[in-house]
Design brief:
Helix 2 links the parallel strand 5 and strand 6. This protein starts with 11 loop residues before the first strand and ends with a helix. The chain contains 4 helices and 7 strands. By secondary structure, it is α/β, with parallel strands linked by helices.
């Protein structure tokens, strides 16, 4: 199934190749050019994974990067809840990672698809993971790590 107007990932679109880093339109336009918005700028040494598909594990080294760092738990945010976030959650779950999706940090083009994707994650006692809101997670982290 193709994306909006029959355009899929990597296809030529009105602003270059869709979802391909380095193409015009893949990031936010600023006065200086195409940049990642300041709130999401990678910190020094942070790894950026370019994903060529809907899931973050497909044709990337994400699994290796996480394994080398001993990471077992993943918190997911982004768009779209019902495609990229959900696919990444399921891929991670298949690889043994524990997943949490932040419901107020994801979105979909259709409200019912968003709700259905969140429901599927938590079915059967959390088959693919858990769902939480970001305020609850931040609160729990602040209580667990008060000096950070």
């Amino acid at each position: 199934m193709c994306g909006l107007n029959g355009v899929g990932i990597g296809d030529a679109g009105p602003l270059g190749k869709v979802l391909v880093r380095g193409e015009e339109g893949w990031e936010v336009r600023t006065l200086e050019g195409w940049e990642i918005i300041p709130e999401l700028q990678p910190i020094a040494g942070e790894i950026i994974i370019d994903k060529p598909g809907k899931g973050s594990f497909y044709a990337t080294d994400l699994e290796m990067v996480l394994a080398l760092r001993g990471i077992k738990n993943i918190t997911l945010a982004g768009v779209t809840t019902d495609v990229c976030v959900h696919t990444t959650c399921r891929e991670a779950n298949d690889r043994g990672f524990e997943c949490m999706v932040l419901k107020d940090c994801t979105a979909a083009t259709d409200r019912q698809n968003y709700l259905d994707a969140l429901c599927m994650i938590t079915q059967q006692g959390g088959l693919f993971g858990t769902v939480a809101d970001s305020a609850s997670v931040v609160d729990a982290l602040e209580k667990s790590f008060p000096d950070v």
